[in-house]
TrEMBL record:
Its EC number is 4.1.1.37. Homodimer. Substrate binds at residues 28-32, 78, 154, 209, 325. Belongs to the uroporphyrinogen decarboxylase family. It is found in: Cytoplasm. It is an enzyme of class 4 (lyase). Keywords: Cytoplasm, Decarboxylase, Lyase, Porphyrin biosynthesis. Pathway: Porphyrin-containing compound metabolism; protoporphyrin-IX biosynthesis; coproporphyrinogen-III from 5-aminolevulinate: step 4/4. This is Uroporphyrinogen decarboxylase.
Length: 348
């Protein structure tokens, strides 16, 4: 039997424990700001090949753990492996980001092959199993997926987008057809996350990176409702594995997300005021965040001040220190060293 005390610090925070020094990990902690990542990346046959090569994916996941001793490792993969596993065409262009052959309307949904998903993703589960064996005992392993709304934006826009016009217009003009796409992604994502836990993931994060683009009604239907269904399905199989929700840009709607989806924690973007979140969000929910990635890139005393503000503001609640969004690739690795030392300075 594992007592609460013997849990890793990161899992203790997700379990609702307030700690004098919060555990820390960073979104996109494995990536191009690290020279050792760039070296492995150059040896792969493109970015997706790196995601599907268990040995290499395991190596790049471990790199930031070796360098900084973070409290959690996040599986190295990408949210776009789900459209790819559904047999949509997905590729990455150097310097431009992801490209997909876009779905135009509900008539294109027959392209998607839900039965192919788990077979396609076997290499990812192999990476999870390797990591589970390789990670230091005090370091937790996070599995993840994109939330259906965010995944749908890539599937419909064919890549990154500024205004999500095609996706939003589809959702307004043909909500039933759009719901069918969301349902396909919900089912694929829930089985993908369950398989990650079966392979050894100890916590999950659901990235709804573009939740902030939705209006009030859209947020309920396309962000909260699908997240709740995924949480329900995953928890029916693995009730004890904590889930972090990240409805980036949700603003005051973070309150509804935390209360209504069933997640154990929410990750806050840097736009959320610390004092507001600390008092307004359900006390049973662990808060993660929310340093501005640009403050980390800038470094220096302003970084220290921003870190202290977050640590102090969340001191009376269970908290996981993180960024408000992914680390920027120009960030000097020494700034991350400074950040980790600052967060842990009271740890003896
Ligand atoms: C929207 C999104 C994506 N991917 C992800 C999100 C959600 C989080 C967020 O909002 O940032 C999530 C993601 N992407 C990656 C991880 C791995 C684990 C980690 O956080 O260290 C995770 C958790 C690796 C990656 N995913 C990507 C890279 C860089 C690609 C490379 O090495 O060539 C990495 C390390 C590529 C990617 N993947 C995606 C984009 C838009 C891009 C291009 C942008 C960029 O180049 O930074 C889609």
């Amino acid at each position: 039997m594992t007592s609460k005390k013997s849990l890793k610090p990161f899992l203790r925070a997700l379990n609702g424990e307030t700690q004098s020094v919060p555990p820390i990990w960073l979104m996109r902690q494995a990536g191009r700001y690290l020279p050792e990542y760039r070296e492995v990346r150059a040896s792969a046959n493109g970015f997706l090949d790196l995601c599907y090569s268990p040995e290499k994916a395991c190596e790049v996941t471990l790199q930031p753990i070796r360098r900084y001793g973070f409290d959690a490792a996040i599986l190295f993969s990408d949210i776009l492996v789900i459209p790819h596993a559904l047999q949509q065409k997905v590729w990455f262009v150097e310097g431009e980001g992801p490209k997909l052959e876009p779905l135009k309307d509900a008539g294109d949904l027959s392209i998607l092959k839900p039965d192919a998903v788990l077979g396609h993703l076997q290499p990812v589960f192999e990476t999870v199993a390797k990591l589970n064996a390789a990670l230091p005992i005090e370091c937790a392993l996070i599995g993840f997926a994109g939330a259906p709304w965010t995944i749908a934006t890539y599937m419909i826009e064919g890549g990154s987008s500024r205004d999500f016009a095609k996706t939003k217009l589809w959702s307004y003009r043909d909500p039933d057809g759009f719901q069918r796409l969301i349902d396909i992604v919900v089912e694929a994502t829930a089985s993908y996350l369950i398989a990650q836990i079966d392979a050894g993931a100890q916590a999950l994060q659901l990235f709804d990176s573009w939740a902030g683009a939705l209006d009030e009604h859209g947020f309920r239907r396309w962000s909260i409702a699908p997240a709740k269904r995924i949480v329900d399905i995953v928890k029916s199989r693995h009730p004890d594995v904590p889930i972090i929700g990240f409805p980036r840009g949700a603003g005051p709607a973070y309150i509804d997300y935390a209360a209504e989806t069933g997640v154990d924690a929410v990750s806050l973007d840097q736009g959320v005021p610390v004092a507001w979140a600390a008092q307004a969000l359900d006390k049973s929910v662990t808060l993660q965040g929310n340093l501005d990635p640009m403050a980390l890139l800038a470094g220096g005393e302003q970084l220290d001040r921003a870190v202290d503000h977050i640590i102090d503001g969340f001191a009376s609640r269970p908290h996981v220190f993180n960024l408000g969004h992914g680390i920027i690739k120009e960030t000097p690795p020494e700034h991350v060293t400074r950040l980790v030392e600052r967060v842990r300075r009271s740890r003896s």
